[in-house]
Design brief:
Number of strands: 7
Largest sheet: 7 strands, antiparallel
Radius of gyration: 15 Å
Shape: globular
Amino acid sequence: MTNTADHAWHWGPELPQSQRLLCHWLQDTGSLTERLRRHCRQFRVQLQRTTAEISLTPTQAAWIGAERAFCREVLLLCDEQPWVYASSLYSPSTLNAVPALGGLGQRALGELLFEDPQLLRSEFEFAQLTTPQWQQLTRMQDIVPSAKDYLPWARRSLLSTGRAGVLVTELFLPQAQAYQEGNK
């Protein structure tokens, strides 16, 4: 089993040039959890699934230095609206170094990792989903597609501390403030 959420997405350095403010969200190196909390009255993590030891694509394996990983998939909700679909991949050695990763439950990953003063983030890669990819993801994750006429953007980067690294993929869903600002 592979992490099908992002393995076929076309990753690269390109950003949506016509949506300057969306770019600010995509390029923000701080805690997405904290930024989301500033934009809503109620923030909540909805655990979609956790999967033990999935096979990784060669690209994913290169990011985290392992061929198999644990996968955690969540929706980040602002005022009960899903704004971000996020997946995190981490190796068994990372789980051994940071056992709290295995018991996050409804807690945001950012709350755990951004507490570490040694946290580093790699450069981002970006992807805009195609229509078939967006349709597949909405079916897999029970995400309600939006009536808006654009396809969502994602970013991924490696969050690492002196002890561990986690590949984090964040897909900004159509209801997210990033798109609302970009369309003003």
